[in-house]
Amino acid sequence: MKKREIYQLLWKTLKQEEKASTAVITKGKDQGSRAVWNPKKELLGTFGQATEALWQQVVEEMDGKNGLRMINGEEVFVEYLTKQPKLVVCGGGHISKPICQMGKMLDFHVTVVDDREEFANEERFFMADQVICCDYEELLHKVPFAPNTYYIVVTRGHRGDACCVRQLLSYPCTYLGMIGSRKKVAITKEKLKAEGFTEEEIMSLHAPIGLKIGAQTPAEIAVGILAEIIQVKNEKADGVMESAIGQQLEQEMAEGMMLTIVEKKGSSPRDVGSRMWICADGHMEGSIGGGNAEYMAIQEAMENLKKEHKQQIWQQVFDMTNRESANTGMICGGTVKVLFEYLPVKE
Fold this sequence. Notes:
Blueprint: H1 3-17, E1 19-27, E2 34-37, E3 43-47, H2 52-60, E4 67-71, E5 74-82, E6 86-90, H3 96-105, E7 109-114, E8 130-133, H4 139-142, E9 149-153, H5 158-168, E10 175-178, H6 182-194, H7 199-203, H8 218-234, E11 239-240, H9 243-250, E12 256-265, E13 275-279, E14 284-286, H10 291-306, E15 313-319, H11 322-328, E16 335-343
Parallel strand pairs: 5-11, 6-7, 6-9, 7-8, 9-10
Antiparallel strand pairs: 1-2, 1-5, 2-3, 4-5, 12-13, 12-16, 13-14, 15-16
Helix pairs in contact: 3-8
């Protein structure tokens, strides 16, 4: 496969199967070679000179963690990726609006469901990606299900909450939370137990929902809920391929640079696997942390895009130790190693 095609294959796999893994040789005789696997660790495609035998070794050493490792004398960066996470909000009341606004800020694909047309409409939830008006009993038939989904149950009453939870407990998801007082939650859990749900299933329900921050207003309650979701999300080892970057990869005439954090030491705003896409026309998506380090990385990428003979792949360490941070006004110390990859238009 061609260089851009292997990234397009990765994005296609994520869209179809929600998860995928990829590895790129960052240092060694096969530098720049990349492979993509589906969730079953079946090899889907490769780019570069690395042999299938080497990629088999990579698969055998996959341990579920993003990062660099030495395999057969070559440095390899392995990633486990998921598609953009989904946030499904059951209920379109006063708490749901700030939840949706914050969900979009956190780069979730947001869906809102309510059984009232005056609440489930695009004018009220203009920030959402999808608005569904249906009876909560029809939830399973109306809402798309995927493993990397976070469900928030905040309907207008106990009956609607219980109806949604009863259906959602039967499906695998990353997070399911229900609003309510401790008394209401206890009653709901007892009913679920009587209906035959296992203790494990019931214990997976986050209820009362959200972190305890003394929230009172709808916005404060939304902060507590999203804070708990962030906590759950960031405990996962998988990285995320942002939809905006994936869409750029689909545009075959968009020449650019892909920047990925492959290693970090000390304090850094973004973790290993964070990436950004920089087009030759200056358009950018994603982030590797902002601040001076990102600024310097962008300058490096843009300089390469201006060259007639472009450097195809390299790594660079950006040092933001405490001393360097003080000089640049940064509050984060540490270092990040960034992988630069040039992606031409489809050859």
